[in-house]
Amino acid sequence: MPLYWTPAELQALNVSPVFAKAMTGWRMAAKQYVYLVHLLRSAPAGLGLPPSCGATVLPFDVYRWAFAATITRQNRVPFVRGQQQGDTLALVPVWDMCNHEEGACTTSFDPEKGLECHATADVAAGGSINIFYGPRPNSEFFLYQGFVMSKNSYDYFVLPLRLVKIDPLLKMKTLLLRNLAIEFQEAPSGDIIVRAVLRAGQHDKALRGVLRIAVIDTKEAAATLLRSLPPPPAVAADDYEVPETPVLSTENEEAAAAYLRNICKEQCDTLTERLEELVAEEDPSYHDRLAVGLLTEELRLFEVGLGW
Questions:
Q1: CA-to-CA distance for 118 and 223, rounded, in angstroms?
Q2: Potential cystine with 305: which of 50, 160, 254, 264 (Cβ 3.0-4.6 Å)?
Q3: Element (H, E) at 58
């Protein structure tokens, strides 16, 4: 969580969705701090706290350090307590100091022994013990671990594609999305927002389906509706597989690819302009360099879309 970034450093990220998430995190941290100070000020006298304490006992800098340390090191782990089993958030000393390395998951839980973790490779004396944090995008690494991984195989970017209310085919497109089990939301304006995911180094099937529907024409929509009707009542829901959106026509494929390329080009131009500004800065801070790393990886993702 970028709680130690200056407003100017945070502002450099306003071309990325990470900016809004970082500001939400800041607001959450500030609200929690105010709440804790209020609790301290109203604490019963028997606790031994000085009267009218609050911020005196818990300065914001101390709280911010504790909040950041907890957010970046908490892990969801299994637990066994008597007959109860489940999972919980916990801080695991030493284990939470391991750095991330892409590869296989080497951590497991044994009810008899507890948490077990193996290094991803042989470690020389004084070397670093690395583990795989999981298939996370760089946005999560940045927000919750404070780093960015170059060429992250699991990186992705959510494209909020918008189908406008004035589109005469909106109802047919919405029905297609519903029949093909593609999630969408209706905006207050009446537009339809579809969550499409652009993934690193691969052409995602769901994204292809959304793009085909977004640029579909009347004839293609009617034909696709006939092929994408929900299963009859006799078919059990567990046995039903959501069909992949079929290739409709050469023209539709070209229009879908052009639609994505236009989106990606606009994002590439915006990111390139911001990166040029950041790289030109003299004596950049560590946070400035981290911002460059994050935006560079986002640019790499959109360059994948340019290649469709």
A1: 53
A2: 264
A3: none
User: Where do the structural domains in the chain lie, given as residue ranges?
Assistant: 1-73, 75-152, 156-306
Pair of tokens at residue 251: 């023209």
- Whole-model pTM: value is 0.81
Bridge partners, residue 193, by sequence: 162, 185
Q: CA-CA distance, 154 to 132, in Å (whole number)?
A: 12
Question: Measuring CA to CA, how many Å separate 270 from each of 69, 190, 259?
Answer: 33, 28, 17
Predicted pLDDT at 235: 46
Return the CA Rg of the chain: 25
Q: For residues 180 and 172, is the Cβ–Cβ distance under 8 A? A: no
C-alpha torsion sign, points 276, 279, 284, 286: positive
How far is C-alpha 57 from the geometric centre of its chain's CA atoms?
A: 35
What are the pLDDT digits (tens) for 198-214?
Answer: 888 666 777 888 888 88
